[in-house]
Amino acid sequence: MKEFKRLTPYREALNLLLKDLTEISEFEEVPLDDALGRVLAEDIVSPIDSPPFNRSAVDGYALRAEDTFPAREYNPVELKVIDEITAGEESGAKVESGTAVKLMTGSKIPEGANAVLMQEMAEREGNVIKVLRPIAPGQNVAFAGEDVKKGEVILRRGHVLRPQDLALLKSVGFRRVKVKRKPRVGIIITGSELIEEFNEEALKSGKILESNSIMLKGLVKQYFGEPLLYGVVPDDEDPIREAIERAKMENDLVLVTGGSAFGDRDFAHRFVRLLFHGTTIKPGRPIGYGEGVFIMSGYPVAVFAQFHLYVKHALTKLVGAKNYGARVRAKLTDRVPSQLGRYEFVKVWYENGVARPIKKKGSGIISSLVESNGYIEIPEDSEGYLEGEEVWVTLY
Description:
Helix 5 (212-222) runs parallel beside helix 7 (300-319). The protein is built from eight helices and 28 strands. The protein is elongated, with a radius of gyration of 31 Å. The longest helix is centred in the C-terminal third of the chain and has 20 residues, at 300-319. The chain is 20% helix and 30% strand. The strands form eight sheets. Strands 7-4-6-5-9-8 form a six-stranded mixed β-sheet. It has helices at 10-20, 65-68, 163-171, 200-204, 212-222, 237-250, 300-319, 367-370, and strands at 27-31, 44-45, 55-56, 60-63, 77-84, 99-103, 115-118, 122-125, 128-131, 141-142, 153-155, 176-180, 184-190, 194-195, 208-209, 226-233, 253-257, 276-277, 281-282, 288-290, 293-296, 327-332, 336-337, 343-351, 354-357, 374-378, 384-385, 390-395. By secondary structure, the chain is an alpha/beta fold. The two termini are 35 Å apart.
């Protein structure tokens, strides 16, 4: 078997990949209910102030704060209640010196009032309240535009929409939003040994149940894409070439698993003009890329690492996402050794500021992925990390 003449350093390969890709310009308009996780295609400007008027932050009495300045528990100030309103109503009364309006949380502050007295700070007898202590102008008032001002840019192009973002958009009147088109990602699984349905006899005779497709479909969806599966293709030159050519025409990116090394039946890399083939990453060293096509390993753990180290960055570039991917600092529970010249993808379980490296090794051990919720990266110039050392963990 031939070997790689040169392994491209990870960062160099990633830069070549990202330089080769162009952000998608197409967008679509979707309802807010369908916008979670989508990437904004334009800056969002608020058409209104939010709140649109001065409103009460508590249940109580709208009044002139100056009237309360002399108030003491031993010498309360008496004010006449001239109106009572609930949330969603507007008082027609004007608050003048010596008067107050009873209202609820969220109610519009009536004309003349500049503060709200919490109802538990007053004693009421009929239409008169006794104010027991002074309050300041503006106290318990949510002012118009306090949350968002009209004309303010509230979300930027490239922002990945979260539940709280959707709440903000709805609060200022949006019902639909323009988002980037999802990149189409073709998935081709190669391998004559693979079967798609459980068959005990086939498994006994050397076949393997295929699992990369469902994992890649999920990862593509998680990172902004729309997967299109082309099924399992046997290790034959013509079917692999035809599948790659078709997928290239129909998708923005193509992921091909298997055939990335130099075995006699490794054909996939022969049908793409590759910018790089073979990098310093471990696991997943044989990855290749060119013409929008990733030639990936066949082993699931290697495929998972290749996706996170390369493919997810490609998808992020295509949609122009600006705020995606959580990284946290954590202390290692164990030493993690590495070999100089390798860029290692190390699975960990992160919890409460601590990262526990997953002991299970091997590119075919899918359970090691299940037992992890993030990973650390060890660059080529490092021999690893010590127990107790603080590292960056990227969460899945």
